[in-house]
Specification:
It is a single chain. This protein is α/β, with parallel strands linked by helices and 316 residues long. It has 11 helices and 14 strands. It has 2 domains: 141 residues, 3-Layer(aba) Sandwich (Rossmann fold), CATH 3.40.50; 171 residues, Lactate dehydrogenase/glycoside hydrolase, family 4, C-terminal (L-2-Hydroxyisocaproate Dehydrogenase, Chain A, domain 2). Strands 3-2-1-4-5-6 form a 6-stranded parallel beta sheet. Strands 7-10-11 form a 3-stranded antiparallel beta sheet. It has a 3-stranded antiparallel beta sheet with strand order 12-13-14. Helix 1 packs across helix 10 and helix 6 packs antiparallel against helix 8. The radius of gyration is 19 Å and the shape is globular. The protein binds adenosine-5-diphosphoribose. Adenosine-5-diphosphoribose binds next to helix 1 and helix 4.
């Protein structure tokens, strides 16, 4: 089997962690692209030099030339500014739209068969723009948001209940903003509803309050990290989340991961990129998994989608 090739556009905080994770998991050969001279070359040399220690053997190249991404199977985009304390993701739209435009053109010209995973914020708008400019089919342009938002939700549940994070499943849908939709009803500890466990622990009323607090924390979790870091936003967790998506695609695992996908009627949404559960395999999004939302969930979804529409509409 031919070796896979992964290109990472943006060699900042997330880009560096992505490169290291690709190497550690030997997902394939890796190219790290950035416009800053020396930065991607330095990071890739740094990562390559511990191959003998970490026992990975892949080609790692840092570059300032789009030519080097030719033949990529997967391209992950993190180019763009991260937010600073007090900023929302949406505040980044103007500057990051310009960056995304040049990045999408570079990918279109050099890696026309790649599957693109966008991480740059504001996510829902940046994926939309990336697809428009590349003109790639919708199944090959997706965004990372839901894997991380869901992992944050699952972490808070595990910490609250004092159980292993490995045994909690939880999912968020919708846009990657303050109106995202953590699915309370489906959160479980090895299949046992979290709502039931919280009721056992606290009684029905307090249990509900505890869940609401976790939902609120999930919605603001990115901002919580930004407020602590002060100089940028989360980078380990978005990198790991995008790698889970890339691995499912590269190895055709068909994992069901919450993914920012283009919807054509699913969940009542038409013509917008929104986070939903998707089967990710060698073709990118192979299917979208639909299920019935209850009235409260649908109302939250509608609110989140309205925010995505407004955001996308604000792009020049
Ligand atoms: N082409 C390629 N790379 C670019 C371009 C461009 N036109 N413009 C800027 N970059 C690079 C910067 O040089 C920098 O190295 O993008 C990188 C961004 O890295 P960081 O500033 O460290 O940001 P990071 O924390 O990695 O986040 C990147 O992901 O989660 C989102 O909100 C976050 O939008 C942000 C993005």
């Amino acid at each position: 089997m031919a070796r896979k090739k992964i290109s990472l556009i943006g060699g900042g905080q997330i880009g560096g962690v992505l490169a290291q994770l690709c190497a550690l998991r030997e997902l394939g050969d890796v190219v790290l692209f950035d416009i800053v001279e020396g930065l991607p070359q330095g990071k890739m040399l740094d990562i390559a030099e511990v191959g003998p220690v970490d026992r990975y053997d892949v080609n790692l190249k840092g570059t300032n030339s789009y030519e080097d991404i030719k033949g990529s199977d997967v391209v992950i985009v993190t180019a763009g500014l991260p937010r600073k304390p007090g900023m929302s993701r949406d505040d980044l739209i103007e500057v990051n739209s310009k960056i995304m435009t040049s990045v999408a053109e570079g990918i279109k010209a050099n890696a026309p068969n790649a599957i693109i995973i966008v991480i740059s914020n504001p996510l829902d708008a940046m994926v939309t723009l990336c697809q428009k400019i590349t003109g790639f089919p919708y199944n090959r342009v997706i965004g990372q948001a839901g894997v991380l938002d869901s992992a944050r939700f699952a972490s808070f549940i595990a910490w609250e209940l004092g159980v292993s994070v490995k045994d909690v499943t939880a999912m968020t849908l919708g846009g990657h903003g303050d109106d995202m939709v953590p699915l309370v009803r489906y959160a479980s500890v090895n299949g046992i509803p979290v709502t039931e466990l919280l009721t056992q622990k606290y009684g029905a009323e307090k249990g509900k309050e505890v869940m609401e607090a976790m939902v609120k924390r999930t919605r603001g979790a990115g901002g919580e990290v930004v407020a602590l870091l002060k100089t940028g936003s989360a980078f380990y967790s978005p990198a790991s989340s995008a790698i889970a998506m890339a691995e499912s695609i590269l190895k055709d695992q068909k994992r069901v991961l919450p993914t920012c996908c283009y919807l054509q009627g699913e969940f009542g949404v038409n013509g917008f990129y929104v986070g939903v559960p998707a089967v990710l395999g060698e073709k990118g999004v192979e299917s979208i998994i639909q299920f019935k939302l209850d009235a409260e969930e649908q109302a939250m979804m509608d609110k989140s989608v309205a925010a995505v529409k407004e955001l996308v509409g604000s792009m020049k």
